[in-house]
Design goal:
Blueprint lengths: L1 E6 L7 H14 L4 E5 L7 H4 L9 E3 L8 E3 L1 E3 L2 E5 L1 H4 L9 H12 L10 E5 L21 E5 L6
Parallel strand pairs: 1-7, 1-8, 2-6, 2-7
Antiparallel strand pairs: 3-4, 5-6
Length: 155
């Protein structure tokens, strides 16, 4: 599975629009695509995909070596997971950077039962530091990763 990470230090600049359109475009090209709305501060992926109500998380107890896993929701053939299903559309989650990274990393590494993806598109939360989003660095779990950064003006 190859990953595309859409990230920016600033919020509200269109990461969700870019990531949802990337997922749709890859699907139109014939790829098997997953979409992870990991933006804990404003999980709006469900709106970008036109969902009127948040999908409930379904658990597969046999997945992940018997530990269980979340089954992605199908949106027009795209495997879809949003943190809004767990926290709500306007979460009041006050987590530091490390907690945000850890929650997203868990969704990437075994907690979701992705089904044979070619591409996984990640919509990430805004970053208050200049570190790499989700701690992604060249290492075995992150090979074939494309990071897309939206520039934000200096203040």
């Amino acid at each position: 599975m190859r990953k595309i990470v859409v990230a920016c230090i600033k919020g509200g600049i269109g990461k969700t629009m870019v990531s949802s359109n990337l997922a749709r475009s890859l699907k139109r090209l014939g790829f098997s695509v997953g979409y992870l709305d990991a933006d804990i501060t404003a999980p709006t992926g469900s709106e970008a995909f036109g969902l009127e109500k948040l999908p409930d998380w379904e658990l597969d107890a046999a997945a992940n070596g018997g530990k269980g896993a979340i089954v992605p929701y199908d949106v027009d053939g795209i495997q879809f997971i949003t943190l809004a299903s767990h926290f709500g559309q306007a979460p009041a989650v006050l987590w530091n950077e490390e907690r945000k990274i850890d929650a997203a990393r868990q969704l990437l590494q075994g907690v979701v039962a992705w089904d044979n993806l070619d591409w996984l598109v990640l919509d990430t939360p805004p970053r208050s530091s200049r570190r790499c989003p989700l701690g992604l660095k060249p290492r075995p779990c992150c090979r074939q990763t494309i990071s897309c950064y939206a520039p934000s003006p200096s203040v």
